[in-house]
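Before going further, learn to read the protein records used in this course. A complete example follows; check for yourself that the lines match position by position.
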Amino acid sequence: DIAREACRNHAQRNGLSHLIDISKKPTRDHRSDLVVANLYYNTLFEMAPQLYAWTEPLGKCVVSGFTKDGEEQLIAHFEHIGFELSHRDSIDEWCVLAFIKRKTENRETV
């Protein structure tokens, strides 16, 4: 709740609140151009298929909240599902990965 409230405040300050939908869990059929998840490694790994389903084709999915020891496994898992790695970065041990959803969907995981 704190993170969502901070996101709402930043969006409002930047005049973007009319463009951003901040929710705890999107509706079943909802898809977005940008999906951001700041979660622990195990949760990201388990939620990868759902994050894929929530991301529009050619949309971006940005994940963080895990350390370098899980980075390569998450990349492999997200790429197997149908994402393509577009950017990676880290601060100390903490990582962030940005993916683009491939235009064609992998029907095995959705």
